[in-house]
Amino acid sequence: MRLTAPLTPLFMALILAGCMGENDSAGESNGSAEPQSSTVQTEPESEPSVTVPVEDGANPVVFVGSNWDGVIDVIDGESYVKIGRINGIPDKDERMREIWLNPIKLAAFHGIALLIGEGHNQYVDDMYSTRNGELLIVSRPSFADVVAIDIASNDIVWRFEVDGIRSDHMALSPDGTEVAVSASTGKVVHILDVWTGEEKARFPTGNSPHENVYSKDGKKIYHASIGHVFTAADRGALKNIKGERIFKVVDTETWEDIKSFDISEKLADAGYPDMSPAIRPMAHTEDEKFFYFQLSFFHGFVEYDMENDKITRVAHLPNRVPNLPVELYVNDSAHHGISMGGGDEKLCVAGTMSDYVAIVDRETFEYELLEGLGEKPYWITRDASGENCFVSWSGTDQMSVINIERAEEVVRVDVGDHPQRIREGSVPDGWTTPF
């Protein structure tokens, strides 16, 4: 759905920047919990080793969330055949009535479409299932909320409204009991109980909170805020109007910062003073000693020593659009998607603006490019076995499974309009729907 209201880009930018709804404090929550066709182009050579936690009575699957039409395609975790589809916005009519009756919500709704959604509403950003396959937790940017959907009935069980006007990336705790969700204009990350939607905790952060990653033991969250990516001020001193861009490590017992910093100074110390400090998707080694950060506008990634707090290496990957002004990069994303393969040997990287996936050797940073598979790869995550990575081709509405060691596509599946996040999870045993 494209814009239908005569709102100026400047006015909408002010709204998204937080002049109408941003909360700088970590005080009381404004949110509330309310009760409430597949094309397989290549056959997999062998069944993958699926080890994602699944309880008895549930089947392992892969969820692919499509941002622009609000559907979640469900793909069998072993055969990679699509078995069903979940409507991520079953309450759309009710939400739209609320929006049309509230001028601020209406301005925000259209502002999100114009400035972030490339002219489209953003209905599904991220999703995780409960281990028993009963609920699917979904963040919905244009509706500024997180909902739990009963997978069997497609009914909404609970709804939580985030601070500000837009919800974004989530993370599921290792024990499967809570999700961390970024509130883009609220400058806060909410921690929600997956069963009730109750806010268990929250922590403050910078402008446009984005990626959240739980540590393996669940005792920490690694978090980055990316600043105002919807502004056109991407050069020179004007970059400063993008707001506060910080990386932090948060203790999940006290919800206090273990460390928090703007990476600008560390980039300068490493000889890269002109790089953006906006950390996008990230990956890390199994021991969480080394992190690999994608940065706004950069075709590649940086290696960060988390123990010694310094940048150790920089990987440069090909820029296939050298004549494209960076102001035209989608939400400042030269690259948007990175994941570490099993054994910490190779990284799978989305070359978003260049339409490729790179398989990068972690020791040498030598790489192989996979090109011609699709357009605008916008997310990458590895499977639980570490053998494969999942890639969303947001420009051609497909997802690929890529074997990391062989650097080759295993299978490709047609999905919804503008796929983004891909997550492994589970559905009830025997569940399927038409699609």
Automatic annotation (TrEMBL):
Residues 26-43 have a biased composition (Polar residues). It comes from the Bacteria. Residues 24-55 are annotated as: Disordered. InterPro entries: Host-pathogen_enzymatic-act (IPR051200), N2O_reductase_N (IPR011045), WD40/YVTN_repeat-like_dom_sf (IPR015943). This is Serine/threonine protein kinase. It comes from Marinobacter litoralis.
